[in-house]
Amino acid sequence: MNHSLNSNTPQRAATVAALLVLLALLLAACGSPGLPVDQPAPQAAAGDDGTVAADNPVAVVAESSADRSKGSADAPITIIEYSDFQCPFCSRWVEQTYPSLLKDYVETGQVQLVFRDFPLSFHPNADEAAVASHCAAEQDAYWAMHDALFAGQSSWADLPDAIPTFIGYAGDLGLDTGAFEECLASGKFDAAIQQDITEGQKAGITGTPSFLINDQLL
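Predicted structure:
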């Protein structure tokens, strides 16, 4: 996945430029909703509106054993998305921008999209939602659960206990709900989610959604 952002073809340069515009417009609308869980994020300059953004671009490591991805691993462009299932800005991205990215870039072989978890500390159900996505992946339904979590975000975001809702999604998707519920309680994916968070913090991520394009932080 370590493709250079410096393209030697006009077509790839145009693709990268289009993606930068697409994602930059999204981020301009969303801003940075806050700091990630537990550990302090790297310091960056604050803007006039009080948001914090990392220097751009920043070279980072793009490999992770916990990646969930769509598209060809041989695509010339890799986008790594750091996201929080309870983040309303991430939900907006999934609803408004994600379909176009899939249709125009991922499905045409130009882009591989990689998802990484970055649950924020002030979203109380975000960690459990991330775990739910991993547990669904055990039954080959990661992306189906990803879509269900974002589509239903408003129905579970403020619940004192969202686990029954997530189990309901698993049932709706035809998963083995007993195995899914056992997985949710196991803690087996806590380390993988923390790895995503740690790598994101090292990359300068402070809010969601955030993106790396060919190892460069947008």
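Summary: The first strand starts at residue 68 and ends at 70.
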